[in-house]
């Protein structure tokens, strides 16, 4: 039954995505702000399908911690789930994402049109400068800039690997920085086809203190997010074990010691 429900959701998810991408093509000629309500409706449709078909719901905690206007959102990244789910709660979200996504047919056109911030990971320090410049423009226009501080998905319980890019943005933007913890990887594991029933809990915490020294930002952010993720994972031992098993199967083989 789990396989059947997961397969049905996958079919509906991609069919729904294709339908929205094609139906909204005329909006690519309109001002970008028209696309955000559409994206929010698409994201909420996905969450509804996930709940009805796969039995996976969501609980949002701390929505009242979201201030008005431009801000920086630093979210844990365990699954593909949050790449669309966070769109459902922010008015004008802009993601920091890898440059390759802009080349996707149709989908990449929308990413470019709304002004997503693409990062060339091979560009080194110049990529950080370009990212900060683009992010300043977005928050000045009232957008919420969303970054995954570890740069890629990490399964529940994996050692954290926070990068310095989030500290660079914190120091450059001078806007509230919201830490976000979640447990999506328990139910939508990385590189797994199965969507397990349950409730994804998303905890939106109060903003980081203002004027933190840049060298302290990563440490403070990591402690807040990882401590909260550990609390959200507690009590889900079976799901945690399954997520860990999936992560181990997808991990690259270790090189032999010499």
Automatic annotation (TrEMBL):
Pathway membership: Lipid metabolism
One GO BP annotation of this record: phosphatidic acid biosynthetic process
Domain Phospholipid/glycerol acyltransferase: 71-185
Enzyme class (EC, first level): transferase
InterPro entries: Plipid/glycerol_acylTrfase
E.C. designation(s): 2.3.1.51
Any one Gene Ontology molecular-function term assigned to this protein's record: 1-acylglycerol-3-phosphate O-acyltransferase activity
Lineage: superkingdom: Bacteria
One Pfam family from the record: Acyltransferase
Transmembrane segments: none
SUPFAM superfamilies: Glycerol-3-phosphate (1)-acyltransferase (SSF69593)
Assigned keywords, A-Z: Acyltransferase, Transferase
PANTHER family registered for this protein in UniProt: 1-ACYL-SN-GLYCEROL-3-PHOSPHATE ACYLTRANSFERASE (PTHR10434)
Protein name (database record): 1-acyl-sn-glycerol-3-phosphate acyltransferase
Organism: Pseudochelatococcus contaminans
């Amino acid at each position: 039954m789990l396989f059947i429900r997961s397969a049905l959701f996958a079919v509906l998810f991609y069919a729904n995505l294709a339908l929205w991408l094609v139906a909204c093509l005329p909006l690519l000629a309109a001002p970008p702000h028209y696309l955000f309500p559409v994206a929010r409706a698409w994201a909420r449709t996905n969450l509804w399908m996930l709940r009805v078909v796969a039995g996976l719901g969501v609980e949002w905690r701390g929505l009242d911690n979201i201030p008005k206007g431009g801000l920086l959102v630093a979210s844990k990244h365990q699954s593909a789930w949050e790449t669309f789910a966070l769109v459902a709660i922010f008015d004008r979200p802009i993601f920091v994402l890898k440059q390759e996504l802009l080349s996707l047919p149709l989908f990449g056109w929308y990413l470019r049109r709304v002004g997503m911030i693409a990062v060339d990971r091979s560009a080194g320090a110049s990529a950080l400068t370009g990212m900060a410049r683009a992010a300043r423009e977005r928050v000045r226009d009232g957008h919420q800039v969303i970054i995954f501080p570890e740069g890629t998905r990490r399964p529940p319980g994996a050692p954290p690997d926070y990068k310095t890019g989030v500290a660079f943005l914190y120091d450059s933007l001078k806007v509230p920085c919201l830490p976000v913890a979640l447990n999506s990887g328990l139910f939508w594991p990385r590189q797994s086809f199965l969507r397990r029933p349950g409730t994804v809990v998303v905890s939106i915490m109060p903003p980081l203190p203002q004027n933190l020294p840049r060298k302290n930002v990563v440490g403070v952010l990591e402690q807040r997010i990882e401590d909260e993720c550990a609390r959200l994972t507690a009590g889900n031992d079976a799901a945690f074990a399954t997520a860990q098993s999936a992560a181990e199967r997808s991990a690259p083989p270790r090189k032999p010691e010499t």
